[in-house]
Every structure is written in C-alpha cells, then in structure tokens.
Amino acid sequence: TMDVCDVPTDTIITSVTTENWYGCQVFCEIYSTCNSFIFSNATSNTENCQLLTTDVVELLSTCKQIGSSKGVSFEKCIDQSPVEKCKGFSYAGCSFSGEVMEILPNMPDRVSCEQASNLLGAAYWTYHLDNLICTLYRENFERSCTMKRGPKKGMGNC
To answer: At residue 131, what are phi and psi to the nearest 5 degrees?
Structure first.
C-alpha cells in the first residue's frame, strides 16, 4: 500500500476514463512521457485514470502511509523488475478491518515498522509518516482499496 500521496499536479499528463486498471496502463503506454498511472474504481462516469510522468519510486516519496503483507518486502514491492511479485504495483485508498495485533507509536521509519512486523509475525503492517505510528494486523484482517497504481509496463499481481 502506498497511500495518502500528494501527487504534484505538474506530473499529471492527463486524465482519462477507462473500465479497469489495465486500460489505464494501456493509455500510459500510448504516451511516451508516461511512467506510471493511478486508476480509481471509486469514481464512475468520470476520468478515473491519471497518467503521470513520475515513476513508482518517485511517487513513493510523496506518500504518507505505507504498508505491505507478510513475506513481501516493501523494497521488493516497488521494484519494477519482472522477477518481483508486485512489479511496482500498489494499492491506495485502502481501509482496513480485522484484529489489530499491535499499535507501535514513535516508530522512526517504515523499515523499522516492517522489521517489527516480521519479528511479531503480523499478516500486514502500515506505517503513517505523519504521526510515526506503526500498526500491525493479525491474519484475519481485510483490506479494501479503491485505487491501483502501477508502472507503464508489467502485470500487477500484488
């Protein structure tokens, strides 16, 4: 998860309407300056696909909430190489339900949050950059997301 991101308006090439995230990615491939996209399924009959000049890693620097599943290194998730599971794809606009394992305040950074998650065997973790809170979820958690981000090429199976 890469959420609560402030996408600079000067990085938005255009917005279009597509049926799904794959259509959004195809539009990104058409524009030579497009390096990533954001697809929202929360909107209907409106422009739900933003094409961006920024790449997935640059986009990460604008996000204030980060998260990942057990066994999926966040660093590897933003890696766009074809051998990595997520291939640079991520979700946003997420809400979480289920049992919270731990809420850890004053966590210095997302890497420490991920380490704490691994240490305690959490199913999922989120790190909030604004308030330095690391939340760890048990196996019974559910995540519901309204947006998907991805690179210009590749298939997202994250």
So the answer is: -115, 5
CA distances 14 to 53, 57, 74, 126, Å, are: 10, 20, 28, 30
pLDDT of residue 71: 76
User: Given the DSSP bridges, would you call strands 63-69 and 124-128 parallel, antiparallel or unpaired?
Assistant: antiparallel
**Is the pTM here over 0.85, yes or no?**
no
Q: Distances from the Cα of 2 to the Cαs of 10, 31, 90, 94, in angstroms?
A: 20, 24, 6, 9
- Residue 97 DSSP symbol: E
Model confidence over 86-99: pLDDT tens digits?
567 888 888 888 89
Contact indicator for 71, 88 with CB cutoff of 8 Å:
no
